[in-house]
Amino acid sequence: MSASSSVNLIMSTLKRLILLAVLCLALTLTNGQLIKLARDTHYEASHKSDLFVDRKSFSLGENKGNLTFVTCPKGYHHHSLEKNCTIGLDTQPGRSCPVTLKTSKSLYFTEYLEVFPLAPAKAVIVWGEFNQTRPDGPNYQSAKILIRYTVVDVNTCKNRQLELQPSLNYTTYLSQVADAKYAVYDDSFEIIIENAEDPKYLNKYKIDGEGNIVLKSVPWIIKPASEVFLPVLVGSKLKGYLHNDNGPEGESRLYMLNADSGGSEKLLLKFRQDLIYYQDISTAHNTIGVARCGHLFNVETNSSNSRVDVVQFDQDGKLKLNTTFNTWIRVQYLELHNLPAGGFILVIGGCSKDEANCDRPEFGIQKFVPDGTVVGSSKFPGIDSCKGPLTLQVFESEPKKYCVAYLCSNAFKFDNLSIVQGKQFVDLLINCYTDDS
């Protein structure tokens, strides 16, 4: 990576090495062993650039630690045909690619964009251009925007830029792009995004690995009031989508939307939303797994208790497992991964139940067999070197090799437009272990 790049790769510090040593001593499971550190990387944007990170796919556990990032010049770019950015994938250490975003009529670029990994050496940038030559002009907020996407091959640094759909104005653009869902398959991907004319509908675009739109459903379905929208695959074939919705009296429901039956859906699960603070879903190994955590207050002891519920279904929605257990901490992090032979891996993090402020959370990893019995567990200390929001992910890198990824970042995102404080950076630490059982 050249010194002139807007992203600098910084070597691990002594504090990170100490952290690694602690984790190596602590992270072992019954019948398993920690293997060497998979990745430990730090990227930092220059003071003239904004950093964009694919928190969305990372937090959903869909990218197997394949973190993607982009840096672009700060603010609205000057009146120009081009905006020169830099993209990198953590699976390609030491390598980044210049990416030139180009407008069609010498227009202004939107400040906000999204990025997500398409393959170990490919990524997609979703961005927009204003339909006017002055971003701060009198019609700035009402100016129409064209949403574009750029497919980048980090091996060759070749990229291809294409048009997706229009957006009515800047406010609509922000919500459309921030709320868009990305489903990645072996040789293609989907972008599911709010309809340009009527926000109560969703559009769906299926796009091949070269960036060509091969199937367009505009509009596709009525937009569910859902923060979750995950594809469920059988092999490489799409089975359907998981989404949640709110029912009467604070009830939350999880549905399977059938991919082949014109929008029909099946109710899988319902629960009291006000008792759920954290939720994670795994669709690995032909299983739908849902982990939920609630905090219950005990009046007699004047303390709260964290309870975790895990439910698993087959891909037709038939219940396989429903188990509940209490935790030794007040949970703030919850990650689930289905195992190929049944059961699951669960990672939880938080602080002791009587600690009001959780600045240094503890973490634990547990292995459960198909009947919900714990057969291996370990606790390890918190990460005190994170100076930004911390996101966890657990994934399977190969058979019987499981990894826990920690993402610490301070980067540009939808809910803090133009007010990122301090250095913009991303830290990624991935530790893996083998399971010999």
From TrEMBL:
The superkingdom of the source organism is Eukaryota
Q: Which UniProt keywords apply?
A: Signal
Q: Which residues form the signal peptide?
A: 1-32
Report the protein name in the record: Uncharacterized protein
